[in-house]
Design brief:
Blueprint lengths: L16 H10 L5 E3 L2 H8 L12 E3 L4 H13 L4 E4 L16 E4 L6 E5 L4 E5 L4 H9 L17 H7 L6 H4 L2 H4 E7 L5 E4 L13 E8 L6 E9 L2 H14 L4 E8 H9 L15 E9 L2 H17 L5 E4 L3 H12 L1 H6 L3 E8 L7 H12 L9 E9 L4 E8 L4 H7 L2 H8 L24 H14 L15
Parallel strand pairs: 2-4, 3-4
Antiparallel strand pairs: 1-2, 5-6, 6-9, 7-8, 7-9, 10-12, 10-13, 11-12, 11-15, 14-16, 15-16
The structure holds flavin-adenine dinucleotide, D-malate (MLT) and zinc ion.
């Protein structure tokens, strides 16, 4: 990987026969993977194939007690660990940097309870987001978050990263829906706060084993429109108009640029069919969710007509049925996959005020062009912008064949400095992980970082819990 600040190994250990004996004594044969490189590979490497560790051991506990036993043993023997859910994280937080033991939550996958009156769901941390949403759909409820990785990511990973996603605009930050957590501290202590905790950014402090979450009622009427727009100025106008005219039924407002669309076409993602035939510099997906289909659809049609009449949008199409709704969404959700197809993708996830949001993409293009690295047969083939306009969250993706330090040096710390100058955050929703640990100072003050380090030190004095992530070493 192209690492700017290669860390030195802090927690040294060699897995002994006694260690292996201990883990095999508490876990069944399908609860651990030892030393088989092929079997270990999917756990050692991240979704982008950017970060690769060399762990010799993956453990997959099936209940809270086993997680506690594992952590107590690791803490007593100073064995470093990395918690891992669905391994869909985009900042290298869920894979080992060296040979940390991977504690994977695949087998922690039971739904514990659901109350159909309050909508409160309590489940194991390893439940897959989409599985939970399907379970709730049968009961007329839904998960308050949705993201392209829903088929693989775990609710524990979502909570640890406080994932944002496609409907934050409507349902707010995930932590606002979390009523309680069960988490294990590095020394094995079980913190049972399943019904009372409002917030707990676990991540590098402990392992979440159970989550209690308040879920909203599933809307009876949902519809989606895709708009073709000629300028970013007009994307903003369309957003303002949507807030004004769709107000309480607006549930998503997503955008992507023409380069993203071209990439979807190039890689024929999910055999996607395109709702608008011509090409536009920008595309927007607007979703509405309410309780009265004919009333809501009329609102959406009036909204679109108004945008067309006032030349805010150049073209627009409303989905006619559920299949089309899913198809429109698959365009937006397919962009991360399309960006990763060339071989390497540098991902930046920033929050900035919406008026300057797309300027970042333009400035990075100019910078890479002037340095002679952007274009056909060059190091970088494309610079893409998409994201959650409704949350002021841009995903800047720099598409390349391989990770090259020359490219990294051109974009880092440039992107972080740019973000700081525009009063933004370098970690809008993906978290800091390994990728941005050394850059935390662009987002947090020295006194905040010092306090965070003190908290980490008091809870994890041996530094076994997910080392090298999140907090700067220097
Ligand atoms: P992992 O990748 O396994 O881990 C992520 C981090 O959480 C690591 O630091 C890991 O150590 C820690 N962790 C995992 N489980 C636990 C646990 N039980 N206890 C303590 N710590 C734990 N993110 C968004 O915010 N919004 C999006 O819209 C979005 N879309 C995505 C689309 C795609 C196609 C992909 C690949 C990723 C997307 N992501 C998005 C990023 C990622 O999916 C989310 O961050 C997700 O929440 C990670 O969940 P996971 O189970 O895969 O966690
Ligand atoms: C998204 O919004 O699609 C996700 O955050 C993933 C990504 O940024 O690629
Ligand atoms: Zn996102």
């Amino acid at each position: 990987p192209a690492k700017k600040h290669a860390p030195t190994k802090e927690v040294n250990f060699t897995l002994t026969q006694d260690d292996i004996k201990f883990f095999t004594s508490i876990l069944p044969a399908n609860g651990l993977i030892i030393d088989n490189e092929d079997d270990l590979m999917p756990y050692n490497i991240d979704w982008m194939r950017k970060y690769r560790g060399k762990s010799r051991l993956v453990v997959k506990p099936k209940d809270t007690q086993q997680v506690s036993q594992i952590l107590k043993y690791c803490n007593d023997n100073k064995l470093a660990v990395v918690p891992q859910g669905g391994n869909t994280g985009l900042v290298g937080g869920g894979v080992p940097v060296f040979d940390e033991i991977i504690i994977n939550t695949n087998n922690l996958n039971q739904i514990r309870s659901f109350d159909p009156i309050s909508g409160v769901l309590t489940c194991d941390a390893g439940c897959i987001l989409e599985v939970l949403d399907r379970y709730l759909a049968e009961r007329c409820y839904m998960m308050p978050l949705d993201l392209g990785a829903k088929g693989s990511c775990h609710i524990g990973g979502n909570v640890a990263t406080n994932a944002g996603g496609l409907r934050l605009l409507r349902y707010g930050s995930l932590h606002g829906s979390i009523l309680g957590l069960e988490a294990i501290l590095p020394d094995g202590t079980i913190l049972d706060n399943l019904s009372t905790l409002r917030k707990d950014n676990t991540g590098t402090l402990g392992i979440i084993t159970g989550v209690s979450i308040s879920t909203p009622r599933r809307p009876r009427a949902v519809n989606v429109a895709v708009l073709g727009i000629n300028s970013f100025q007009n994307v903003q106008k369309a957003f303002m108009t949507s807030k004004d005219e769709l107000s309480e039924i607006l549930s998503a407002f997503e955008f992507w640029d023409m380069n993203a669309l071209n990439l979807l076409k190039t890689h024929n993602i999910q055999g996607t069919k395109f709702p608008l035939e011509d090409h536009y510099p920008f595309y927007v997906l607007v979703e509405i969710s309410g309780s009265n289909k004919s009333h809501d659809d009329e609102k959406l049609h009036n909204f679109l007509e108004n945008l067309l009449t006032n030349e805010i949008v150049t073209n627009g199409v409303v989905a006619q049925d559920d299949t089309q709704i899913a198809r429109f969404w698959s365009l937006r959700e397919g962009i991360p996959e399309a960006c990763s197809k060339a071989g390497a993708v540098y991902k930046y996830d920033i929050s900035v005020p919406v008026p300057v949001l797309y300027q970042m993409v333009k400035d990075v293009r100019i910078r890479l062009q002037s340095a002679g690295v952007l274009g056909e047969d060059k190091l970088v083939s494309d610079v893409i912008g998409y994201g959650h306009i409704g949350d002021g969250n841009l995903h800047l993706n720099i598409v390349a064949n391989t990770y090259d330090p020359k490219v990294t040096n051109l974009i880092e710390p440039y992107v972080y400095e740019w973000t700081e100058q525009h009063n933004g955050s370098i970690s809008a929703e993906h978290g800091l992980g390994f990728m941005k640990a050394e850059y935390l100072g662009y987002t947090k003050s020295p006194s905040m970082i010092s306090l965070m380090k003190q908290i980490k030190q008091s809870i994890d004095p041996n530094g076994i819990m997910n080392p090298y992530k999140f907090l700067p070493t220097r």
